[in-house]
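Write out this protein's structure.
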Amino acid sequence: MHDLFYQEDVFQDYDHADKRRRGIQFTIDYQGRWYFHGEQSPGPIKRKALAGLFGGAGQGFMAGKGLSIDENGIYWLKSPESRYQVEVEDVPFIITRYDIHNNDVDLYTNFDEKVALGPDHALDLRPEPHNGVKVLYAEVRKGLWARFATNVYNDFVTKLMKEDQGRIYITSRDRTFEMDVN
């Protein structure tokens, strides 16, 4: 099975030595791509399964572990032996698709991690950092958020969200998420 995560031409060219000097061992770019800044073999992490494992996606002993965020908003990758600082350009995950079952919405991240929209997973409409346009974000787990990909956001808002007096809302799993569009 081919597990290459990204095409070669979409990676950013980071100054790995500068990142190491600043104590940054990993970066997650704006599009959710992972980079390693260690002494040996610095560069993009091209295997989706490996980046997903670091992010805590999937099942098994690392599910929900790995990446975390502390009370100061600093991201960390934790291993049994150590922890490594992770620089995140926006949020660590991207919502790449969604499904609807009996009026309940399931979101899926770039690592195919399922997020059951409802009481345990918040939804927020806020400006993204590149151009300030408001987009949807969903909480994946414990302070870790995902930004909706543009095409998914447009489809989701058009097909699922209802509008009433300058506010949009959606109900999933008996929780209504209401947001001001202004």
